[in-house]
Amino acid sequence: MDLIEELMGSKGVHLAKDSKGNEFGIRVLGRGMDLFFKENNKGLICSIDAAHGVIYTKTIRIWDSTGEKISREERLRISRLIEKYYKEFYNSEVIMDGIVS
């Protein structure tokens, strides 16, 4: 089993649901240099600096669970979701590096 498959079903992932029933998950990996994010049945790993509360949004390029490329618009949407749930579960002072509106 690869890491994404393992994380998709992991009980160690912080989970939340929105009002529409969508399930989101988030987990800082290893020494805080990577972050797993899950939206329903898709998952990805992006780069972060957990010690300084920085998420590198330019590393959000592909859904690792499906191989599907992420468009610029979708990256912005995903970045906002990661920011929301990172603040909720880890650090309210997170910095989103690389977001361009």
Description of the molecule:
- By secondary structure, the protein is an alpha+beta fold.
- It has one domain.
- Helix content is 24%, strand content 31%.
- The protein has 2 helices and 6 strands, in the order αβββββαβ.
- It has a 6-stranded mixed sheet with strand order 1-2-3-4-5-6.
- β1 and β2 form a beta hairpin.
- The radius of gyration is 12 Å and the shape is globular.
- The mean pLDDT is 93.
List its traits.
101 residues, 6 strands, alpha+beta, 2 helices, 6-stranded mixed beta sheet
Derived structural class: alpha+beta
Helix content: 10-25%
Biggest β-sheet description: 6 strands, mixed
Count the beta strands: 6
Instruction: Tell me the strand percentage band.
Output: 25-35%
Order of helices and strands: HEEEEEHE
